[in-house]
Amino acid sequence: MIDNKPTYTVRTGETDGSLRYYAAFVDGDGIPREAEINREVYLALEECRRHEQRQVRSDERHRERLVLSEGQLAERILLPSRSIEEAVAQAADIQAALASLTSTQRRRLLLYYEHGLSYEQIAEIENCAYQVITKSVVLAKEKLQKFFEGEGCKTGV
Fold it and tell me: Which of 54, 93, 104, 129 is deepest in the core (most CB within 10 A)?
């Protein structure tokens, strides 16, 4: 098992109204030490620390993937396995379905679902009553549902 504990820490402190930078570490005799460092060294050590954290997270994800089978990974992301042809056909269906909406319906639907804005927030952006936004999104959903239930959908998804 790899020891992921940092060999040093850095911190800032204010003395006499000026910002000072410090590095703390344990020396070769096991004695904790702290030394004042300049800003450039502080920034370099902080960047190294962030890089090490990213590397540790990447290594953990890599080890996890080695242990999990493809089936387990598919279950984890809750998507059934599908061919590239199916994925392309589904993407084309989604694009066609969105194209069947008016530009206003499409914009409001995407603001609501893709960007997570509330009806009130969208109404404020578009300078109208939230009931208008609600009706627009509901109608867009109904139109999409009819599209996927009807002839417009190639994959039946």
Answer: 93
Grouping H, G, I as helix, E, B as strand and the rest as coil, residue 75 is helix
pLDDT digits (tens, 9 = 90+) for 23-76: 898 888 889 999 999 989 988 888 888 888 888 888 877 766 666 666 666 666
Tokens matching residue 85: 């042809």
- Same domain assignment for residues 111 and 145: yes
Distance CA 108, CA 20 (A): 50
Bridge partners, residue 77, by sequence: none
Return the higher-pLDDT residue of 87 and 104.
104
Q: How far is 5 from 2, CA to CA, in rounded Å?
A: 9
CA distance 101 to 147: 10
pLDDT for 113-132, tens place per residue? 888 888 999 999 999 998 99
For residue 43, what are the domain limits? 8-70
Please indicate, yes or no, whether residues 62 and 102 belong to a single structural domain of this protein.
no
Strand order in the sheet with 8-15: 8-15, 18-26, 32-37
Statement: residue 1 has pLDDT above 50: no
Length of the chain: 157
Q: Is residue 51 part of a domain?
A: yes
